[in-house]
């Protein structure tokens, strides 16, 4: 059975992407680390439509063993992923001089290592499907312009951009397409534990950004490969 898989589908933009997909009858798998958030999301997504199948897996995508186990389980359950949304991420705000080992590891792991792990394994999976497949990647405008106090986050997103552009070159001409989205600020739980001083009233609603991403990612007639979605300032 064919599914769309969303990393970080339990919160913010990822959850809105999952909702939109379920509403149009797509089968959806959401991935997150927090069991309670995962179970709540699965329950709410299942209530949206009886026409879609919804599954959830508790996976830390920065752990390659857990990612390999996920793909083994998908194979056992005869689940095929035609669309992967590499969406999971974690914010950071603070002086470069005060970075801790925990800041560096957690931000690089969620935004960069996890995306590398998922992309690496989904490519083998998708090549076997022998149909057109897509990998949608939620980076950030932080992957395009350096910004004070967001150093390690920007480093992760720039790293993801370099990785994805190289993967694109490596798989060119095959059955897999890579789309990269660069959203600006969104009002999501991403900012909950961050003291940024930003004015969130100007930030985009995740449901509106999700609507654009789904529209572009499901348009089979054209390939919009790189897109910036920014807020009015
Ligand atoms: N909010 C913004 O202003 C903004 C702007 C531009 C780009 N973005 C990007 O948009 C994406 C979605 O962010 P959001 O704003 O929706 O944030 P969010 O509400 O905090 O959601 C982040 C999601 O990622 C999951 N996650 C994080 N690390 C993970 C890991 N190692 N393994 C598995 N799941 C993991 C979280 O689940 P658990 O808590 O269960 O781990 C959660 O479901 C991120 O890539 C972010 O960088 C956000």
Which ranges are low-confidence, i.e. pLDDT below 50, for 5 or more consecutive residues? none
Tally of DSSP β-strands: 7
Structural class: alpha/beta
Give the class-level CATH name.
Answer: Alpha Beta
Strand order of the largest sheet: 3-2-1-4-5-6-7
**Oligomerization state of this entry?**
single chain
Describe the 3D structure:
By secondary structure, the protein is of the alpha/beta class. It has one domain (2-229): 3-Layer(aba) Sandwich (Rossmann fold), CATH 3.40.50.720. Helices cover 44% and strands 18% of the residues. It is built from six helices and seven strands. The chain has helices at 12-23, 35-48, 64-76, 101-129, 151-171, 206-218, and strands at 2-7, 28-32, 54-58, 80-86, 133-138, 176-183, 226-229. Strands 3-2-1-4-5-6-7 form a seven-stranded parallel sheet, sandwiched between helices. Helix 2 links the parallel strand 2 (28-32) and strand 3 (54-58). Helix 1 (12-23) packs parallel to helix 2 (35-48), helix 1 packs across helix 6 (206-218) and helix 3 (64-76) runs parallel beside helix 4. It is globular and about 50 Å long. 40% of the residues are buried. Bound molecules: NADP nicotinamide-adenine-dinucleotide phosphate (NAP). NADP nicotinamide-adenine-dinucleotide phosphate (NAP) binds next to helix 1, strand 2 and helix 4.
């Amino acid at each position: 059975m064919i599914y769309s898989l969303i990393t970080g589908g339990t919160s913010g933009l990822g959850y809105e992407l999952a909702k939109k997909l379920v509403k149009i009858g797509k089968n959806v798998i959401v991935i997150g680390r927090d069991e309670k958030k995962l179970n709540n999301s699965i329950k709410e997504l299942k209530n949206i439509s009886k026409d879609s199948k919804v599954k959830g897996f508790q996976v830390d995508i920065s752990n390659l063993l857990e990612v390999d186990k996920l793909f083994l389980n998908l194979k056992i359950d005869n689940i095929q992923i035609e669309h992967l949304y590499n969406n999971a991420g974690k914010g950071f705000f603070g002086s470069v001089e005060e970075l801790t080992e925990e800041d560096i590891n957690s931000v690089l792991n969620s935004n960069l290592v996890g995306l590398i792990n998922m992309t690496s394994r989904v490519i083998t999976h998708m090549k076997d499907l022998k149909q057109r497949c897509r990998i949608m990647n939620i980076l950030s405008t932080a992957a395009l312009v350096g910004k004070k106090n967001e150093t390690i986050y920007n480093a992760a997103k720039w790293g993801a951009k370099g990785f994805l552009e190289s993967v694109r070159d490596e798989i060119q001409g095959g059955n897999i397409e890579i789309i990269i989205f660069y959203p600006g600020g969104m009002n999501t739980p991403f900012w909950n534990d961050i003291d940024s001083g930003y004015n969130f009233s100007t930030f985009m609603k995740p449901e509106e950004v999700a609507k654009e991403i789904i529209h572009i990612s499901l348009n089979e007639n054209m390939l919009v490969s790189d897109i910036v979605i920014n807020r009015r300032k």
